Amino acid sequence: MVSSTEYGSHTWDLLLTVDHQHEDVEKEFLLQVTGDLHVGGLMLKLVEQIKIAQDWSDYAFWWEQKKCWLLKTHWTLDKCGVQADAKLIFTTQHKMLRLRLPNMKTVRLKVSFSSMVFRAVSDICKMLNIRRSEELSLLKQSEGTLKKKKKKDKNSKEPATEDILNLCNSPVSSGLPANPGLYSKTMTPIYDPVSGSPASSTITWFSDGSLTEQSCSILALSHPTCSPEMLAEMYQPRTLADKAKLNAGWLDSSRSLMEQGVLEEDQLLLRFKYYTFFDLNPKYDAVRINQIYEQARWAILLEEIDCTEEEMLIFAALQAYHVSKLSLSSETQDSTCEPEVDEVEAALSNLEVTLEGGNKSNILEDITDIPKLADSLKLVRPKKLALKAIKTYWFVFRDTSISYFKNKESAQGEPIEKLNLKGCEVVPDVNVAAKKFGIKLLIPVADGMNEVYLRCDNEDQYARWMAACVLASKGRTMADSSYQPEVQKILSFLQMKNWTMCSQAASEPENVDMKPECFVSPRYTKKFKSKQLTARILEAHQNVSQMSLVEAKLRFIQAWQSLPEFGLSYYIVRFKGSKKDDVLGVSYNRLIRIDMATGDPITTWRFSNMKQWNVNWEIRQVAIEFDQNVSIAFTCLSADCKIVHEYIGGYIFLSTRSKDHNETLDEELFHKLTGGQE
């Protein structure tokens, strides 16, 4: 018989498992609880039962069946839905995780397994001294990208201990709140302009001292030794479908690591997910610049992004230069002592740069006077049977449109055709050695894309017209302050390619430890002999030999950003009403529907024309509405639709950033834009 008082209390037994390291203490405890007991009270009762004197502040309940954390300690068990059959594990929220960085180094550190991934990545970046954490995320390598490596890696699953950088003693790792020392507004860490490593007097500003000088050097400096054998073992995408596999494993930023099946000591990839590198500053972004450079380098070596032979040699020259310069600078660093930097002087000089701003421009002139371009260019129209009609016309570029006329005299009348470039795709078609300066325009029309080729006569003309086309595609005119910098960027890239103009022979090749197979993708090692590659890389090397190490990295990143495919993440999708699969390319400012068989773009939709987007979670379909009553819907076949939805919302979120150094990230806005109200 049960007494009335006992019956009225509604107590029931709850089995709790404690994840602790004490072997002589039992791990399972049976507690009598009631539905109105709050989670915090349950924790207190359990700790009293365990009778181990230790800090339990990092512990929380993990609900095994529901795959969720019980973090709201004021909620009652009834409100949480916890009943007698619930399996609750009392475990630490911060656990060890291995992260493979873009430079292929593995770091081991403590990460919050209970925070949303967006917050966890922010904490990781503070530990690694990487600003703008919102550009990065965590990636699980998909099964498809691991298949090639399985045979060789069967017996060597664990990476060698010496390759792992242990950062587990950092305060952030231990679950303590991070001091914002890294983001100090008055003190800016100063870097050596040659090596890119931090000056000794500023090393203490890094992540509350969790990074030693040696650790920081590993993250901020590249040691690129990559054998052809190592490249052959790595996953190299051959088709658009292969490239889609690379983006299938992004973790959901709105859920925790534990909720997504990540376990302690698992290995994930830390990568730049969003290709909008905001406010890159060599003064205090040594680690960030190096990791972006490394991600770009591996993307080119593994042919994740296509480039021409001419471009591949430029990338190879910058890498080869990087290696020789690095070895030289490390030797000089060993023999000379670094001068101490006066912190106040450093802060004042930084303030001076900030107050001076960049190049001054006449803002009123920008507003009132919209420039135009007028030139004689060749128009190339693709015709059937691979024939091309090439004819010279008089072209006028005004606002965001190009008009062309029979000749200069008829420019006052009606044009033969007017091309509106807003929302078009602009693809460079350049071979500097052959004096070919072409611009390929893919202009959206009702039934797809209209192809137009423009041929320029020289580098200067090409740079001006190309920059105008790029801006017009984004809805901006030449009056925009970014026009001149865009022209200069294009000219500097062309100058790097133009090594044939240098009359000097490749100097002192014996002094360069050149292994050309390490600097180009396997396709080019098969195409050329080693000596041929060495000679061609050294020719290209002459144009970059005067740069500082950080400048060489920035030039590499800039050249990578100039590639037509830069920043595109691919997914295999099925559009509503379509009977075949297509590839969807997601970029920072647009979506592109691409024919899976030919690789040709079919349609482009700009984010600037987007009215709203959402997900039908029942049928896993992403629906997007644009201006002028254009709407699209698709299901994602190569990844979860949440990944694509988060990509779109993430890019919209990043476009709201400003250069205010006091700005704190609006996490709530990020989750509102990327969550999809699931």
Automatic annotation (TrEMBL):
<feature type="domain" description="PH">
    <location>
        <begin position="378"/>
        <end position="474"/>
    </location>
</feature>
<dbReference type="InterPro" id="IPR001849">
    <property type="entry name" value="PH_domain"/>
</dbReference>
<dbReference type="GO" id="GO:0042995">
    <property type="term" value="C:cell projection"/>
</dbReference>
<dbReference type="InterPro" id="IPR011993">
    <property type="entry name" value="PH-like_dom_sf"/>
</dbReference>
<keyword id="KW-0965">Cell junction</keyword>
<dbReference type="GO" id="GO:0005925">
    <property type="term" value="C:focal adhesion"/>
</dbReference>
<dbReference type="InterPro" id="IPR019747">
    <property type="entry name" value="FERM_CS"/>
</dbReference>
<dbReference type="GO" id="GO:0007160">
    <property type="term" value="P:cell-matrix adhesion"/>
</dbReference>
<keyword id="KW-0130">Cell adhesion</keyword>
<comment type="similarity">
    <text>Belongs to the kindlin family.</text>
</comment>
<dbReference type="InterPro" id="IPR037843">
    <property type="entry name" value="Kindlin/fermitin"/>
</dbReference>
<dbReference type="InterPro" id="IPR037837">
    <property type="entry name" value="PH_Kindlin/fermitin"/>
</dbReference>
<keyword id="KW-0966">Cell projection</keyword>
<dbReference type="Pfam" id="PF00373">
    <property type="entry name" value="FERM_M"/>
</dbReference>
<dbReference type="GO" id="GO:0005178">
    <property type="term" value="F:integrin binding"/>
</dbReference>
<dbReference type="InterPro" id="IPR019748">
    <property type="entry name" value="FERM_central"/>
</dbReference>
<dbReference type="Pfam" id="PF18124">
    <property type="entry name" value="Kindlin_2_N"/>
</dbReference>
<dbReference type="InterPro" id="IPR040790">
    <property type="entry name" value="Kindlin_2_N"/>
</dbReference>
<dbReference type="InterPro" id="IPR019749">
    <property type="entry name" value="Band_41_domain"/>
</dbReference>
<dbReference type="GO" id="GO:0007229">
    <property type="term" value="P:integrin-mediated signaling pathway"/>
</dbReference>
<dbReference type="InterPro" id="IPR035963">
    <property type="entry name" value="FERM_2"/>
</dbReference>
<protein>
    <submittedName>
        <fullName>FERM1 protein</fullName>
    </submittedName>
</protein>
